[in-house]
Amino acid sequence: MELNTSQNDAVLNCISKMHSKSSTFTLIWGPPGTGKTKTISVLLWLMREMKHGTLVCAPTNLAIKQVASRFLKLVQEHSGDTRCLGDVLLIGNKERMCVDGDLKQIYLYDRVRRLFGCFAPLTGWKHHLSSLSDFLENGYSQYLQHLQDSQEGDTPSFFSYARKRFAVIYMELRRCFNDLLLHVPKSSILEVNYNSILLLLEMLEEFNHMIQCRYFGDEIRKVFLYSNDEPDQTNSSVVTLGKMRIKCLEELSTLLSCLKLPLTSSKPTIRDFCIKSASIVFCTVSSSTKITANKKVEFLVVDEAAQLKECETLIPLRLWTLKHAVLIGDECQLPATVKSKVCTDALFGRSLFERLSSLGHEKHLLNMQYRMHPSISIFPNTSFYEGRISDATNVMEKEHRRMYLPGSMFGPYSFINIEDGREERDELGHSKRNFVEAAVIEEILYRLRRGTCSVFTTCFKTKRKVTVGVICPYNAQVVAIQGKIEKMRFDPLQVKTNSVDGFQGGEEDIIILSTVRSNSVGKVGFLSNAQRANVCLTRARHCLWILGNATTLASSGSIWSDLVRDAKDRRCFFNASSDYVISHVIAKQRRDLDRVNVEKSIHISSSKNCRVWVETRSPNDLNEQGTSSTSVSHYAGIPSSDIVVVSEFQRPSNKNEDVEDITVIPNKENDKDINAMPVIPDKGNVVDGNHILAIPCAMLSNLARWCIRSFRS
């Protein structure tokens, strides 16, 4: 559990404040890769040793699982007895948390399920102790009763009966008490009972081994009739088993009288027991509402505190028994998500971590990063942390520099300029994408998959996969890339494509960043947010490859302008066109986009020819039947006699105004379904200042009859 100086100072400060008389906060500022999860784990390990009730919270299920997993690993490595984890508990929604592996040992849902059988009054721990005690005490009598109850012909020897019967009772008792030792805290079992259980299980294991592996025949009866008052007989095995039986009966009697555990079949009762008896509880801030007021919690740790709204942090802070709270986060990374502009202007999304920091509260900076190659960390360090972060020894070693692809373009850090990229909106118009960048990423992943460099040889030998993260600021780009690579086989790669928010708190061997924006005016939208950029640039361990239009980014006046300039100064700037294959990939993608655009243009032109054109001068131009006296063009075989032209109202035409669609509704005889045919918006939909609606005669007649009936009624 070695800590660096900054980590050690932060832990010691928390412990000292924990024992102060006043309730206080401690802020731990943890930039990317500085080991804040390790710091939390060591702090929690000390809290557990000191028997302080501790609640650990985080914004998301993924974040709290990472902290719990790291702490559990620390306990397994440094605890003398890894069998007992009943004082550690993970709470979360079963469907959304997706707990697997070792975390099931501390997950509330699985714990309640396992203890349900152990606490059952008729089949639980007390039943198993009583059954074994009764068998060791009255085994021969039970055998005689078995002979009376059994069918004719089924007459096993006492030795055969005893061996089978003991094995069944012992296996059930061992399973039950192994679950109890794992899922019930020592404080609930008591130390003396805990030791008695371990001793009993050890003796029963030896007793079972002897009775199963040796043949005693009729002498097994002497084992069940043996008492300490009798002199030792010639068969030493019988004497050994007899003495062991008496010791087991003594331990069983002690546990039956001293062990005080619940006897209930109520899952809510078992759930409350688990929560109340745990000393370290992990959950999201929203799930902390399940921690009731009668649960004594003295110490609160909130991970990713800068990503929580202040009101969310107040949920666990409501516990009145709290003596100290530790907020761990980084205000230079993504804050809480707030979509309302009114709420944003009112600072609703501000975290308690940020508020206390702005008020001058002391922050303990973790100042040594263990994740990124120095070529990757230098820009975020100078841009976001004023150069206060040092590179640890492990990232400066030669082994940390890994070349996954040949060529300087694919070194530890590079900006790959794609001038021919095209940004466009998706079909819904809500997000942006760049198919040219997506095609280049597909080519890079294809090269990585082939794995020709020596680093992949090592991965094959160790069966360790190279993790690759593809970060996109826009969800439409995530979908575009996933569509291109969904059929690719990635061995020996493990590829994850997600938005910036999806990568917060994560890290990968290689990060490929698609910036998407490519325009002539330098617009980059929310990409200009420095906190978002910080997350993008600090996820990689060995390689960070940034794809973007240098002209667009350099003229944006944002952090990306500095990044492009820095890449050029450090000679980490490369034109994608300098790579022969990538240049051909870009050219092919542009041709495909041009072809799609031409097809769209033809489709739009064809749609315009399908429009119903109506000419009318005023409502007075309608004849007695309601049809226009002027000519009406028609489409798809809809006769003009079946179309009624209604002038909704008159007003002066405004050429700058967007006009709603005209809808043509065909009138099908003997068909009750009326299908609407949308028409593409156009200024021509307003004729002489009139908004026009074209509907079939039958529908107008039905509408008129309905209006008359409604008026008369």
Automatic annotation (TrEMBL):
Keyword ATP-binding in annotation: yes
Superkingdom classification of source: Eukaryota
UniProt keywords, alphabetically: ATP-binding, Helicase, Hydrolase, Nucleotide-binding
Molecular function terms from GO: ATP binding; helicase activity; hydrolase activity
Ranges of residues in domain DNA2/NAM7 helicase-like C-terminal: 349-550
Location of the DNA2/NAM7 helicase helicase domain: 2-341
Any one Gene Ontology cellular component term annotated for this protein: chromosome
Record bears the keyword Acetylation: no
SUPFAM superfamilies: P-loop containing nucleoside triphosphate hydrolases
Protein name: p-loop containing nucleoside triphosphate hydrolase superfamily protein
